[in-house]
Amino acid sequence: MRSLRLLRFLYTALVYVATPLILYRLAFRGIRQRGYLDRWRERFGFFDTPDFESSIVVHAVSVGEFNAALPLIEALMQRFPDQGLVVTTITPTGSERVIKVLGKRVFHVYLPYDLPGSIRRFLRRVRPKLLVVMETEIWPNLYFTFRSHGVPILIANARLSERSLKGYGPGQPLAQYAVRCASWIAAQSQTDADRFLQLGAEPSQVEVVGNVKFDMPVPAGFAARGQVQRSHWGGERPVWMAASTHEGEEQPVLAAHARVLQRFPDALLLLAPRHPERFRAAAARCRAYGFNTRQRSEEGLPGADTQCFVIDTLGELLQFYASADVAFVAGSLVPIGGHNTLEPAALGVPVLIGPHTFNFEEISERLLAAGAAVRIADADALGSQLQRLLGQPDLRRQMGAAGRATVEAQRGAVGRIVEAAARLIDTPTSRR
What we know:
Elements: H1 2-32, E1 55-59, H2 63-79, E2 84-89, H3 92-102, E3 107-110, H4 116-126, E4 128-134, H5 140-148, E5 153-158, H6 162-167, H7 172-179, E6 184-187, H8 190-199, E7 206-208, H9 222-233, E8 239-245, H10 250-263, E9 268-273, H11 279-288, E10 293-295, H12 296-299, E11 308-310, H13 317-321, E12 326-329, H14 342-346, E13 351-353, H15 361-370, E14 373-375, H16 379-390, H17 393-409, H18 413-426
Parallel strand pairs: 1-2, 1-4, 2-3, 4-5, 5-6, 6-7, 8-9, 8-12, 9-11, 10-11, 12-13, 13-14
């Protein structure tokens, strides 16, 4: 216990010392993305107290985690209509997505920095009965403070890559103490469960329940909407999408598209950079490559002569996936760890992924094993596979059907997590 207090004291002191640097970084990022300059008070637990008596808090760090959490949030609101639903994020893009999708149906603020005073202010205002943390967010003071106030913690859709596990390094004892504050860890896979046990979780805390991303609803009419969009730029044209690209990936993607155009001169690339601050640079790069380029924010949709269409808006990946013949899911050609491949798979779109998919290990392996996805090593392989798939509609249909079947077979994690949430709310955690 003495070592825990010392570790926590040192960690908290480090966070206090780093806070000015964190604020400086926010200001610097705000030069390119104005959202980082707003609502700093929320990051220290200062905001207007909502008008509910108690709440369930769901923390999703950014857009990807929120999109994964959405079916769970909807299920929690339906199961617990008498509880306020608080959704927290860290990034402005995540915040914008919450506001756009859920509006006034939930109470949304930024999660405070991991400072004891900020967390206590947050607790006093939202009066939580349960904290649901999506995926891999382990903040020691957040966990210790909630536990000490008798609030159960549920880590939902819990995943822990080998890289993340090793990344704790000297801080692993503190992470072990923190993770043991959780009442229940709903692991995506047995591999994730084993890594949480390696981190220090107790076996009684951890259960494999599956991945909530498989419960993602596909909105009715999306396939038809995709065909309508295609009619604007020529319904018979080969169309492929590069989704959630990072720095270092646009160049290989554009090189692959140049190769595709050699065989399919009328082909169209739908390019969706991951971060808003890179939208303009990505469009400029397409034009510098010599492609006839349009942008979603300026021209709306591609024209018949558009070769590269930059999706410089948020929250529209699904509708453009529905317009594509093949989807390359990025963050995987560079060591980011990949992004969600279930969105195109659920729509019946064949998937290409790079070598780095450690953030979506289980999903990637399932889709690869089912024949719904193909792994590529580099830009040359990306170009080759695109030429192959765009030239074989029967193979694309086969891969698309395999993707839909894989998604459908794995549904059910949301229901299991909601049942666990009900048990935790009915049996509050004892204080420590």
